[in-house]
Amino acid sequence: MFDIDIWQEIFSTIKKNKMRTVLTGFAVAWGIFMLMVLLGAGNGLSNGVGSNFEGNAINAMWIWSRETSKPYAGFQSGRSIQLTMDDFNDVSKMPQVDKISARYWIGDRTYAFNNEYGSYNTQACHPDYMAIENFQITKGRFLNEIDMQYGRKVMVIGANIEEALFENTDPIGQIIKVGNVPFKVIGVYSEKDPREGTRQGLIPLTTAQKLFNAGNRIHNLALTTHNISKNESQKVEENIRKLLAKNHKFDPSDERAIGLYNSLENYVETMNIFRTIKMFVWLIGIGTLIAGIVGVSNIMLIVVKERTKEIGVRKALGATPGSIIGLVLLEAILITALAGYIGMFLGISLMEGINFMMEQQAQAQVGASGDQGEIRMFMNPTVDLRIAVSAMLLLVSAGALAGYIPAKRAAAVKPIEALRDE
Amino acid sequence: MITLTNIHKSYQMGTNSLHVLKGIDLEIKQGEFVSIMGSSGSGKSTLLNILGILDNYDQGEYLLDGKLIQNMSERNAAKYRNETLGFIFQSFNLISFKNAMENVALPLYYQGVSRRKRNALALEYLDKLGLKPWAEHMPNELSGGQKQRVAIARALISQPKVILADEPTGALDTQTSYEVMDILKEINKDGISIIIVTHEHDIAAMTDKIIKLKDGNIGDLIINGELASFKKSYAKELQPA
Questions:
Q1: CATH code at B48?
Q2: Domain tally for chain B?
Q3: Three state DSSP letters for A335-355
Q4: Would B12 be classed as within a structural domain?
Q5: What is the pLDDT of residue B162?
């Protein structure tokens, strides 16, 4: 069936109707082109927004204190809540909580090293904070338990600070002055997401409690949960609210007493939106493709009609129904597959081209404005190979489908009717 | 070679049924050159279609080369047509986008013969019919006589036992018609049975046996020796015209 002769047969019929074949093929090519472009755009949107979650662990939660909005247990509304280490201890005992860190800000201080100085923010935290914030240590190490235990005066500085204060010196082991307090630099961190900035120094929480009068107070809790679903994550959220409501005597239904940001919930919701978008894209793409396929089917029906006599002659000369079906089916598959391939190639080329240009632009931007990027809504709008391959399979089966009815009709041609002289 | 016993055939025309063949009994031996005549509607084309396994019959028995041809699957019918029968048509029915050689080679394609072998064979047959220089020509570059000779070559290439020709000279002028008949006679000498349907008396007169169909029955059977008298009666028929 796949010998050279059948292809010669097919090509000779295609050659006879070049224009018609091209137009038919165009419909299919256009369909697959649109599918690829839409899928690429959908991916771009999804990748772009997805990249905004990269800066933090995706199952992270942030809790900060606010003011109550409901009177409760004899207290008036409008009372400020102050989180404390007790809250930290209670929350860290929850079984679903994986990493947890309290955070306490010391505000802007002057950082000085030799003759270089600048004003930076200092944040006190636990060693777990690194995993929650999802940043990278480029030099040295992060804070550890021993730093915590002894309340050491050590600091991990942001890459921005290193750049500003330590031009040609390795910062590790150097003493930096924060206000009047000397700290030893033990590491440098950088962020995956340039928007988050690296303009602060991180010190052990215990050090802050001793040196900066933090006492029992904390500003913020950051934590990650174990690998759990969105629903479980919401449950944890609720439990934390209840626990804090009990600790601070506010109404558990008072949403405004504490602030809580659940990145998993946001991530899952965003990804759900994109899943829906992707579904629609497939729907539209396949719809366009079907229009093309119906076109092919239509043309093949006409071809069969036109070739009725020829098919009759072939049958009289000994062509089996199978060979006639093969002829028509293969022609339909060839047209769809070839045209589809061209459409797919063009679609993917276009998206890769856009991607290339965007990457160039992004690089130029980073070069111009340091690593302070902006929110990206569109990124890497390409279609992966798996989808392209499945689209190809879709095309071939679509071609077969397009050719099926015409082929059946061709096989049913009776030689006598075909040979009757009109 | 061919034995027909009490063949009946009707066509369904809406609610009416048209009884075309009403019990045909016929025997055609190996190497016979037979013509089927009859006015239009006498059933001669239907008979040829049944002989060519292009159509089924309702009743009776058709033995071709000793095999009963009945309720055949399309596939088997195709195989039989390919191996035992050769067809020649009034309008030649060459495939327009294939050159003469490829047209002749087509039956061998359906036998699964390799391309080189069947093209070589096709050239050989075209040469026999004096068409070798036209082997690469497309059908629309050939004259009517040449087209019919290509069609004859195509019918011969599968070395059939029987050649069925439906008005083979119907689209040709007298001169070319006689040339084609001469070729068919030559072929007949090699032992291939030839059955032609025609309404031209002079063409029929060149065959060994004339079967005259009348209203779905065999009206007259004129065999070799009696051809002279047939010619006489044929001449008489011509006189009033």
A1: 3.40.50.300
A2: 1
A3: HHHHHHHHHHHHHHHHHHHHH
A4: no
A5: 94
Domain membership of residue B16 (yes or no) is no
Whole-complex ipTM: 0.86
Q: Tell me the per-residue pLDDT of A286-340, one tens digit each, with 9 for 90 and over.
A: 888 788 888 888 888 888 888 888 888 888 888 888 888 888 888 888 888 888 8
Report which of A191, A87, A89, A187 is spatially closest to residue A132, judged by C-alpha positions. A191
A310 touches chain B (CB under 8 A): yes
Cβ distance A416 to B54 less than 8 Å, yes or no, reads yes
pLDDT of B131: 92
Strands A97-113 and A220-225, bridge-based pairing: antiparallel
Q: What is the tens place of the pLDDT at every residue in B33-90? A: 999 998 887 888 888 889 988 888 998 999 998 888 888 888 888 888 888 999 998 8
What separation in angstroms does the CA of A126 have from each of A206, A221, A226, B124? 9, 10, 18, 95
What pTM was estimated for this model as a whole? 0.66
B15 inside domain: no
How many C-beta neighbours within 10 Å does residue B115 have? 15
Amino acid type, A279: M
Choose the mutation target among B9, B74, B94, B98 for the interface with A, i.e. most A CBs under 10 Å.
Answer: B74
Residue B156 lies in a domain: yes
| Contact flag A318-B166 (C-beta cutoff 8 Å) | no
- What pLDDT sits at residue B46? 86
**Residue A90: strand, helix, or coil:** helix
A175 pLDDT tier (thresholds 50, 70, 90): very high
Average per-residue pLDDT in chain A?
84
Which residues 6+ apart lie within 8 Å of A224 measured at CB? A57, A59, A60, A61, A97, A98, A99, A100, A131, A132
Which of A12, A310, A320 lies nearest to residue B75, judging by beta carbons? A320
Range of the domain at B102: 29-55+73-238
Measure in Å the smallest separation between the Cα of B198 and chain A Cα atoms.
Answer: 14
B106, A421: Cβ pair inside 8 Å?
no
User: Which among A5, A321, A415 has CB closest to B75?
Assistant: A321
Cβ-Cβ contacts under 8 Å, A310 against chain B: 95-96
